[in-house]
Amino acid sequence: MTTSSDCGSTCPRRPRPSAPAGSGARVPAALDFQSFTWHLLHHRVPWLYRTFHKVHHTYTSTSALTAEYSGAWETLSLGLFAAANPLLLGCHPLTELAFFVVNIWLSVEDHCGSRSAVGHAPPGAAGAVWRARHHDLHHLKSKCNFAPYFTHWDRLAGTLQTQD
């Protein structure tokens, strides 16, 4: 009950300074795969798209408000993934809180077309990290760019599109 490690601790004590970085990297990696799979299925299965995900695609041009514009099922299911991963990985509550703040920030940023240094590769990078333009293309075409953070799942599935 007295450990202070981030993952696997028995009580929520202050995490070690290095702990959030380690567990913080695993949480987005897990969520990226889950969200990619969820998102791809909701676009490939017409009933799922019509019933649950179409609300989010009401607007083809993205804005900060469209980031969180979704129905109850979509909000609950994606929120469950986001909340379950830090818990399953045994992360400290402060790490989980930090993840939620950064996750919502990046979602809003990706929908409003801006590109800050947080979580994004510079324009000349190999495309390993998600950028706002990729999500703009997703809302325009609806058949590409499904992953929330990284592009490797889209690259492997053949759904990555980098230009119009």
TrEMBL record:
GO terms for molecular function: iron ion binding; oxidoreductase activity. The keyword Transmembrane applies. One of its GO terms (cellular component) is membrane. It is found in: Membrane. Residues 30-159 form the Fatty acid hydroxylase domain. Residues 1-24 are annotated as: Disordered. Transmembrane segments: none annotated. Keywords: Membrane, Transmembrane, Transmembrane helix. The keyword Transmembrane applies. It holds the Pfam family FA_hydroxylase. GO terms for biological process: lipid biosynthetic process. PANTHER family: STEROL DESATURASE. This is Fatty acid hydroxylase domain-containing protein. The lineage of its organism: Eukaryota, Metazoa, Chordata, Craniata, Vertebrata.
